[in-house]
Amino acid sequence: MIVDLLRREHRNMELLLAVLQRELEIFERGDRPDYEVIRAIISYFQVYPEVYHHPQEDLIFSKLRIRNPDAAASLGDLTREHHEGADRLHHFARAIDAVLADRDILRQEVGNIVRNFIVCERDHMMWEEHEFFPAALKALSPQDWMEIGSALTDRKDPLFSEAGEASSDALRAHIVQLAKEAEAERHPVSFHQG
Question: Is 186 domain-assigned?
Fold first, then answer.
């Protein structure tokens, strides 16, 4: 089902936000984060969510407006939220470009911009999961979902599919490493002396 796909994409985006948060912590300690990974995350958010994921949600929202205008109105303006997210992403990308070009920008300002991007993306996805998706599932007809499904393009996620591009390799490796570290933290190896 389409909403299941969107939820899976949200989980994938959350993985990237977790990687970004880890890189932000490194940056805020005064160390050098992996800018290749940060640029890959920016690139991913510029392409996949903006070109595929958000238009899909916008299409669902337009159907919701037709089926249940009151529910749609109570949710607010999803398209505007997506535009604001794109603006935050652009601001984030410019801040990273400024750091890499050694332009005058305060470390704290960069940290605030990146943190704002992470927090707002998480809040937006949580709102969609708890408010928007349930309203759409309740209001839309099977015919609506078929029409939405037929509007889907045959797309492969550039990072989370086997068809991932080489430019995603560093980010994919970083995610795998973070997953291993998180697993090790959850299940530490204990040594018993005999």
Answer: no
Residue 39 clears pLDDT 70, i.e. is over it: yes
Residue 70 maps to which CATH number?
Answer: 1.20.120.520
73 vs 88: CA distance, rounded Å: 24
For 166, the domain range is 2-174
pLDDT tens digits for range 12-38: 999 999 999 999 999 999 999 999 889
CB 41 within 8 A of CB 16: yes
Q: Is residue 188 part of a domain?
A: no
Q: Number of structural domains, the chain? A: 1
The answer as to whether 183 is a domain residue is: no
DSSP state of 49: I
pLDDT at 6: 93
- Mean pLDDT confidence for 138-156: 83
Domain assignment present for residue 73? The answer is yes
